[in-house]
Specification:
The protein is α/β, with parallel strands linked by helices. The chain contains 15 helices and 43 strands. Among the domains are: 157 residues, Immunoglobulin-like, CATH 2.60.40; 276 residues, Glycosidases (TIM Barrel). A 9-stranded parallel beta sheet has the order 27-26-24-20-15-14-13-29-28. It has a 6-stranded mixed beta sheet with strand order 2-1-12-9-8-5. The chain is globular and about 80 Å long. Bound molecules: alpha-D-glucopyranose (GLC).
Length: 691
Amino acid sequence: MLKKFTFGTPIETEAVIFGEVITGSQESTPYFSIGLSGKDQEQAHVLTYRMGDHDIIYGLGENIRGINKRGWLYESNCTDDPKHTEDKHSLYAAHNFFLVDGKQRFGVFVDAPQKVTFDFGYSDRELMTVTVAHGGFALYILEGDNLRQMVKEFRHAIGRSYIPPKWAMGYGQSRWGYKNAEDIRRVVREHRDNQVPLDSVYMDIDYMERFKDFTVDEDKFPDFPQFVKEMQEQNIHLVPIIDAGVKIEEGYEVYEEGVEKGYFCKKEDGTEFVGGVWPGRVHFPDMLDEEARAWFGRKYQFLTDQGIDGFWNDMNEPALFYGEDHLKEVFHELNEYQKKELDIYSFFGLKATVLGVANYPEDYKTFYHNYRGERVRHDSVHNLYGYYMTRAAGEAFDKIEPDKRLLLYSRASYIGMHRYGGIWMGDNCSWWSHLLMNLQMLPGLNMCGFLYTGADLGGFGADTTEDLMLRWLELGIFTPLMRNHSAAGTRQQEFYQFGHREDFRNIIGLRYGFLPYLYGEFVKAAVTDDMMFLPLSFVYPEDETAAGVEDQLMAGESMMIAPVYKQNAAGRYVYLPEEMKLYRMRSTTSMDTEILPAGHHYVKAELNEVLVFLRPDHLVPFAKGGCNVEELKTSSVNLLHFVRTKASYDWYDDDGYTKNMDMEQGITRITAASDGAVTLSGRKQCDCRLI
Ligand code: GLC
């Protein structure tokens, strides 16, 4: 059971919404000793715990470093930083939930929308220190003997995770740089002509008129509704981006309405805060204000009315290229520098001033929200902004399309947002280390409720290579969001930019083979508050070796994945906690299998081969393929199998849009005996064969 302890007056985040919560007094907080640091209004709470030598820390959702978070200092302070290097402390999210497993086993959720730091053995190898910046907060403590079960309990308390439409688990192609309808047509044509499956094409900021939200540039997209239809006829969903900042421009309806109704964030003096992002000068809608949020949400209808059924929300930390007031000060400072001879001190001072303009921490203290009837300074609720922007859209979609799931995901997030949409992992780089880091993020994200997630496959920043693209896809075929995305100015990375088209066709094709299984596992995980990607130790808690595995994951009920993430590797070392059946897959029809005993193995995997390990007495429904989710037939599937005595699997499926998941109706129990006989029970009529 969750136990809640409050410190000062916490700001309600609506992260925890269900379940029985026992409230304890601050003095009785278990595990941690509590102290204060700093003065007056800036006073922070400091929680300290002495860790055991071999304690492992799981969680913190979207973050740098490994599955075990021990040994570094993490910060929850949603930040737009596109260089996710090992020395960073914060990415775009604030996912303040973690589990400690070792000397003692407990879970912690720090429900605080302000900045929180997690020093997990950084300052002192044995000490865990959690510091919550100024203001009150709620601390939830969770106890139990089973890690997976503890996560379920937490997840139950924060409410059911967002479930996308089924098509959103198909392959998506994106690039910041598709300029017009013709560019998008080419993407679709290349995929279709080469029989590479595709379900969606993303529309980055260039589709808008001068980067204004809820506009479409008519020169680039003449007759947009017709274009959307043309794409739909080919089973392609267009997914436009929506940014947090609203351009300041006379005559622009969203801007004018927002000013008139007072929906933008204001400064101390009551005037609107001005920041700079893609369109130049912008105002930020007060997503925390209920009325402003509903207003912003309704704006999405401009696009849904034209046939759009998916969105990605971006720049909602919110990212600031500059705050206008601070920028003026910087220009003034630069003038002063002009008069000086730049030496070691002044040159680096100048550099820091210029580089510090973006996301300048002091800017976030200069504007306010109207939150639950109170005026709240932004930095006290900073980590809620992306959450509430996505909530604006999610709540609006329930009204616009009450019977249909729409695709929605965000860059910035806080726990609670997982009920409204998914997230992608932000601006990674085309580095091999990021392929591994993206794998390592998955279990932590699932712990925090974010099931619909994935990385920019191939890498967003920097230039990719064909082998990196392929290897990354070999992980991406398992992540619910499977999108190839890259930044303007980098090497283009659609499959047709490379020589070996067949390899891409086969690897991406494998995703469609696994789709019945992945979709079913996804929905089951959402409905039962479970994880879809788990560290090995969550499934094999007694296995000490499994606890140290940082580059393999359990993927749903039946299998383990172990992607190759090193350049020029012809295979990799894999640890099997028990006997498993290896499927070495080249396409939906070409694979070889081998039963491997528990223990360490070196397993070969050529560039065009994917490794999948089946657990004993488990099955995986595997489709025969298709060019998009719509065409994927589930009336006849193959079964990947490892049957020692008898295997059974509860396969969930539905129409892909319905909002009320009926588990009884949706589940078909497939049973396979060791003699190869397969039986089905449930409503589904399906021809299932072992392969
Ligand atoms: C941000 C997003 C990225 C997008 C770019 C342009 O960097 O994270 O995905 O392509 O903005 O909109």
